[in-house]
Write a structure and sequence with these properties.
The chain is mainly α and 451 residues long. The protein is built from 18 helices and no strands. It has one domain (10-450).
C-alpha cells in the first residue's frame, strides 16, 4: 500500500482523538515555536536595544499582518481545497491547486511588497509612528519587505504540506525556521552590532531556509502530491477556488491590520510611545495562546476537510466537538496565566518599570474573556475547512469590524487608556455569541438537508 493511500485511509477510519493528536500536536509545536520565534525577537530587542525598539517593532504589526495575509490567502485556501479534493479521490485536481498556488504566491506577495515599500513612511506615520519610534520600524521593514515572498512561501506551503497529509514534516518546517532565527538573532543583533536591522536579516535568512525545506517536499516523487510543470499555468476556476476560501483568513488578517492602526492611534493619544510598546508585549504573550489554538485548527483542518469531501459527516462533527473542547482548555490556561502571573510574563521582555506597569494592567484586562475565545476560533476554521467561505469570512470579520473597531472608537473616550484594553474582551464576548448562533443554525439546517 502506498504512503498516499495510507494517509487518506486513516483520515476516514482512524479514531478521531488519535487523529487529532497525530495531526494537531505537530502543528501546535510548529505554531508555538513560531510564536516563540517572534517573542524572542522582542526579548532581544527589549533588553539589547531598548524599550522604544519594542515600540518601533510594534509599529510594524500592520505591515506584517498584511504580508502574512498574502501567504494565508493562498496557503489556507489551497490547503482546504487540496484536503477536500483528496477526500473526493481527485488527486489531479489537488495537484492543479498546488501548482496554481505556487504561481499565485509570487504574484500576490510581489504586489503587496511593492505597494508596502513605496508607501512605507506614510503608512508608518499612519500606524502611529513618532520621531522616537519610526526610525526603528523603517530600519526593520526596509529589509523585510523585499523578501516578503519568503514568508508567503514558507507559511503558505507549510499549510499545504499539512493539509496533504504530512503534519510532522510541517512541524519541522516551523521548528527549522524558529531555531534558525533564535540562533541568528543574537549573532546579528549583538555580534555584528546591527540592532533592529540584525533582527530583520536573521528573520529573512531563517525564512529562506524554511522555504527551501518546504518546497523541496513537493519536488519529491514519493509525496502524496507534488509539483508538475503543467499545473503552473493559472486556470481561472482553480484560482477562484483557492481565493474563495483563502479570503476568510485573508480578511481576518487585513481586519487585524486596520484594528492595530486604530489601537496605535488611541494608544498614542492616551498613553504615548510606551503604551504602544506595552501593546507589543501584551500581543506577544496573547499570540502564544492564540497560535496554540491555530495549530490545533491546522491539525484538524485536513481531518474535517477530508471527511466532508468523503461525506463522512458524523466524523466531521465529532472532530469539531473535540477541537472546541481542546481549544477551550488552551484559552482558559491563557486566562489563568494572564490573571495570576502577568508581571512575570511582562518582565521577560523589558526591565523598563513604567512599561512593565502599563503592560501588566493591559494583560489582565485583555485576557478577561479568554476562556471562550477558543470556541470562536475553532468554529470559524471549521467553515473554512469545509469550503463555506462566506460564513467563515463573516465570522472572521465580525469581531473586528462589527465589535472591536466601534469599541476602540468609543471606550477610550470614556475610560482613557483602559478603554483601549477593555475593547478587546468586550468584542470577544459579542463575537462568541454571534458564532454560537451561526453554528447552531448551520447544524440545524444541515441535519434537515440530510433527512
Amino acid at each position: 500500500m502506498s504512503n498516499s493511500t495510507e494517509i487518506t485511509n486513516e483520515l476516514a477510519t482512524e479514531k478521531i482523538g488519535k487523529l487529532i493528536w497525530k495531526y494537531s500536536l505537530p502543528a501546535v509545536v510548529g505554531t508555538v515555536v513560531m510564536a516563540l520565534y517572534n517573542i524572542v525577537d522582542r526579548i532581544y530587542l527589549g533588553h539589547g536595544v531598548g524599550a522604544l525598539a519594542i515600540s518601533g517593532l510594534a509599529l510594524t504589526f500592520p505591515f506584517m499582518n498584511i504580508l502574512m495575509a498574502c501567504g494565508m490567502l493562498i496557503g489556507a485556501g489551497a490547503g482546504s481545497r487540496i484536503s477536500i479534493s483528496l477526500g473526493e479521490g481527485n488527486k489531479d485536481k489537488a495537484e492543479r491547486v498546488l501548482g496554481n498556488a505556487f504561481v499565485l504566491t509570487f504574484i500576490v506577495s510581489g504586489a503587496a511588497s511593492v505597494i508596502s515599500y513605496i508607501f512605507m513612511g506614510d503608512l508608518l506615520r499612519l500606524f502611529g509612528g513618532t520621531e522616537q519610534t519610526i526610525r526603528y520600524a523603517e530600519d526593520y521593514m526596509r529589509i523585510i519587505i523585499p523578501f516578503a515572498f519568503l514568508s508567503a512561501l514558507t507559511f503558505g506551503f507549510n499549510n499545504i504540506m499539512r493539509a496533504s497529509g504530512y503534519p510532522r514534516k510541517a512541524m519541522w518546517t516551523m521548528i527549522i525556521c524558529a531555531v534558525s532565527n533564535i540562533i541568528l538573532d543574537p549573532i546579528f543583533i549583538f555580534g555584528f552590532g546591527m540592532g533592529i536591522k540584525g533582527a530583520a536579516h536573521a528573520t529573512n535568512i531563517s525564512l529562506f531556509i524554511g522555504a527551501c525545506f518546504v518546497l523541496s517536499h513537493f519536488l519529491r516523487k514519493d509525496t502524496n502530491i507534488r509539483f508538475k510543470r503543467k499545473n503552473f499555468k493559472l486556470q481561472i476556476d482553480t484560482v477562484k477556488s483557492i481565493l474563495s476560501i483563502g479570503l476568510s483568513p485573508f480578511s481576518m488578517q487585513i481586519a487585524a491590520s486596520l484594528v492595530v492602526v486604530i489601537i496605535n492611534f488611541q494608544l498614542i493619544k492616551h498613553g504615548g510611545d510606551l503604551a504602544i510598546g506595552a501593546f507589543g508585549i501584551v500581543n506577544s504573550v496573547c499570540i502564544l495562546i492564540i497560535m496554540t489554538i491555530i495549530g490545533l485548527n491546522q491539525g484538524v483542518q485536513p481531518i474535517i476537510g477530508y471527511n466532508y469531501g468523503a461525506k463522512l459527516f458524523d466524523r466531521m462533527f465529532r472532530t469539531l466537538r473535540t477541537a472546541i473542547i481542546i481549544a477551550t482548555v488552551i484559552s482558559t490556561t491563557g486566562f489563568l496565566l494572564g490573571m495570576f502571573v502577568p508581571k512575570f510574563l511582562i518582565g521577560l521582555f523589558t526591565s523598563h518599570t513604567e512599561m512593565i506597569d502599563i503592560a501588566t494592567n493591559a494583560l489582565k484586562i485583555t485576557v478577561l474573556l479568554f476562556p471562550i475565545i477558543g470556541f470562536q476560533i475553532v468554529v470559524s476554521n471549521f467553515f473554512q475547512s469545509i469550503g463555506k467561505a462566506k460564513i467563515s469570512i463573516f465570522l472572521s470579520i465580525t469581531r473586528q469590524f462589527l465589535f472591536l473597531i466601534p469599541s476602540l472608537l468609543v471606550l477610550p473616550a470614556i475610560f482613557g487608556l483602559n478603554g483601549v484594553w477593555y475593547a478587546q474582551p468586550l468584542s470577544d464576548g459579542l463575537a462568541v455569541v454571534v458564532t454560537g448562533l451561526t453554528v447552531l443554525f448551520f447544524i440545524r439546517k444541515f441535519k434537515q438537508s440530510e433527512l
